[in-house]
Amino acid sequence: MERHAHNETGPAEQHLFTWLWFGGLSFRTIARQTRRSPTTVRKWVRRMLGKNVCKTKHYRVMLVLAGVTPLVILCSVVTRAGAAGLSVGEVMHPGGGWEEHVAHAASQVVQVYLAECHLVLAAPSPSRALPHLIRRLSEVGELAVFLQPCGGAKVFHGTTKNKVVLGNDGVPYFWREVWGSSKATCRAFLLDYTACGTDTAARLLSWSGLWLQPDTRVIILGGREDADELFRHAALRNSPDVLFITHGLFTPHKAPETKANLNSDRRTVEVYNRCFYCAPVEARPRLLLRWNLHDDISQDFKMFKDQHKDFLGHRMNIVLMPYFPYISYRVERNASATTVHLEDSLNTRMVNSLAPYMNFTYEVHEPADNQWGVPGSGGNWTGIVGTLQHELADFSMDLTRTPGRSEVVEYSRIYIDESIVILSSKPKPLPEYLSLIRPLEGEVWGAIVVCVMVWGTVLWVMERLSHWISGRRYLSFSSSIFYGWGLLLEDHPFEPPSNPTSQILVGFWLLVYLILSTAYRSSLISHLVVKGKSSVINNMEQLAERGKEGWEWGIPASRMTGAHKIFFVTSPTPAIIEVHNGIKITETEEGMALVLKGGFSYIDNYYFIQTLVSTFYTDDSGYTPVHISTTQYPLFVGNAWAFRPGAPFRQRISGAIQQFLDSGLITFWMNDVVRSHVREERRASKEKGTQPKLTFEETSDGQVALGLSHLQGCFYAFFLGQAAASLSFLLQTYFFSRHHAILLVSPMEDF
Fold first, then answer.
1. Are 154 and 83 in contact (CB under 8 A)?
2. How many CB atoms are closer than 10 A to CB 55?
3. What single-letter DSSP state applies at residue 413?
4. 19/387 Cα distance (integer angstroms)
5. Element (H, E) at 271
6. pTM for the complete prediction?
7. Looking at the DSSP assignment, which residues form a beta bridge with residue 317?
8. Phi, psi at residue 628, to the nearest 5°?
9. 3-state SS class at 420
10. Minimal CB count within 10 Å: which of 15, 275, 424, 614?
11. More confident residue, 497 or 52
12. Mean pLDDT for the chain?
């Protein structure tokens, strides 16, 4: 006859038989406790020992079985009772019948509310409830079972042979494997300690890593006297959905005690939960449901209530650093305390919008070391990141998301990008004394000089050949060179060459002169009217190139304690590495003064620089003497709110931030914060009578009259020619006097 599927012995029960047998129970006792026949128990124990299913590492067993069946089992075995020092009573608690009632209630809760969830069943010791839970929960969804004996006994993971490995040190790794092995959309954790004390249950909770799984729903089965202690366990500090199922109190009946009345009382269980966001006094266990197991659960009854809709005035602890326009605040310090007051900024508007909507309050403080957060020793981080890592604050409202930080803190939705830009002085006018040679590039000037010398030499050779053939007069070499310069400078000679070959050569030179003179005149006019300017710095490559010419750059000290430093240190770009090697720590006021002076660039966040320039370095007409680079360098993926590990309210706040993004409020608030700040600061500056910190240059779009400043190059050329002529005259006079003295001395020596 074919067996029914629900009567088949699954892998969970097979391992349970073996576990109980090693605990010292007989096959008949195991069969009575699990409601199986002794033959079935004996068969599966022998098969399990023969197959050597349990591997040396417990997580290997979990992975092997997961590939065969949706039931995931961790094989945990101990030595025989005598070797481990355990009595039969410690392995299987005899207990009363209420354990099975509690297990029945838990299985119904799972079937109604946690169907298709990834289930983890933890039992510090086998109890009457455990076989029922394994059978019923195996039919619901994916299940992982963890067993450990009560008391301080060691747990061994391995086989019955000599290859036995202590498993206590590997338990946390098992939990990481359990939580990461399933792709289910929901998770549930069931703790059965109906046959054990709270010490072992607390140790198991500490290993479980539940504080990193705030969305996991927790169901605890046990005695009512332990409810308050377990609800306050640190492992459940981030778990809002916790149910405690225990047996109901026996209530005396006014009617005669009948067997039906007694059975009704004994099949009554009580379900407790807690107010997660209430004050500690009000967060004690509260009765959610008194449930008679003869009745089914109503489909409309909410066993797990959404406690994130209303935070009930919960006080959030926020850690932050000033970073306008993202974050702005003022600090009041006195002898007793330091108070931080938020001022208008993007994140101030965000948190002030969320606080009344979600009904929470907050207090703000700075990190102890006044840093954003960089890696330290031993896996610890500094600054804001370290504060969240060690759960000394609930969240930070603005923190750049980096791969390293994401390993120690959790982030909300990225709500805005952050980019680094380079601020430099605007291109300055080139010296006017170079206006005469600026119309043509250096290569053109060099080509002209070479062509004149070559043309003059060819003309002289032609003239010499003509003289040798026909006896005509010819030009000297110097006259030929100056003849070419004269044509170029519009000084036409009175006597052109008489040789036809030389005349053809001069004709083509006149054509070249026409082209060059026309191009030079037009370019000279434009350069005299429109002043030439130096090149601008728009990227790191240009900044590094300017560094070879003595250019310098700097960044504020606070920026190099966070994502800016990580950006420079981890960048593979050679130009960025070179910029990082030459960077100087310069605060804002000093840096801007150096930028205006010239030869210095200031590196910072785009929004901060834009606000700074618009507020203090732009006049009423919109003129500013500084230039913001067109190339922006993103700081990783952007900025987000960072939360302590396992923060249960992270998803709720992240969803609200997503709504801000969808509605366009983030962009609107950021632009409005910048405009409001600029407007208020400029109004305050006018009231104080201060002027923008800039060097104003007046420009005109109309006609330009050439002045002495435009034509100073011409006069410099005039004075240079006079000096050259004077020097030539002095040299000529010197050599003539020496030659004349030699002539006077020579006749006297002959005499």
1. no
2. 18
3. -
4. 44
5. strand 268-273
6. 0.70
7. 363
8. -95, 130
9. strand
10. 275
11. 497
12. 76
Q: In angstroms, rounded to a whole number, what is the distance separating the alpha carbons of residues 464 and 456?
A: 12
Token couple for 179: 């939580």
The residue assigned the tokens 């434009």 is: 526
State the Cα–Cα distance between residues 5 and 226, nearest whole angstrom: 38
Q: Averaged over 700-714, what is the pLDDT?
A: 58
Lowest average pLDDT, out of 180-194, 250-264, 727-741, goes to 250-264
Q: Which two tokens stand for residue 93?
A: 């608690």
What pLDDT shows up at residue 742?
Answer: 67
For residues 576-580, give the mean pLDDT: 93
Point out which residues pair with 158 in neighbouring strands.
164
Structure tokens at 545: 């190139």
pLDDT of residue 730: 78
d(CA 144, CA 121): 6
Distance CA 179, CA 236 (A): 16
Say if residue 539 is exposed, middle or buried (CB neighbours under 10 Å; 0-12, 13-18, 19+).
middle
Token couple for 507: 């004709």
Q: Which range is least confidently modeled, 121-125, 160-164, 194-198, 432-436?
A: 160-164
pLDDT tens digits, 589-626: 899 989 988 889 999 989 999 898 988 888 877 888 89
Q: From CA 633, how far away is CA 228, in angstroms rounded?
A: 53
**Could you please report the per-residue DSSP string of 651-663?**
HHHHHHHHHHHHH
- Longest Cα–Cα distance of the chain, Å, equals 172
Q: Per the structure block, which two tokens stand in for 374? A: 């960089």
**Residue 398 · residue 320 · CB < 8 Å:** yes
Which of the pair, 151 or 128, is modelled with greater confidence?
A: 128
Return the structure tokens found at 379.
């896996």
Could you give the CA distance from residue 15 to residue 75 in angstroms, rounded to a whole number? 7
Please enumerate in sequence order all residues whose Cβ is within 8 A of that of 586, keeping only pairs 6 or more positions apart, or say none: 554, 555, 556, 594, 602
Does 641 or 742 have the greater pLDDT score? 641
Average confidence (pLDDT) over 7-18: 70
Going through 624-693 in order, the beta strands assigned E by DSSP cover 626-628, 633-634, 639-643
Cβ neighbours of residue 130 under 8 Å, at least 6 residues apart?
A: 16, 103, 123, 192
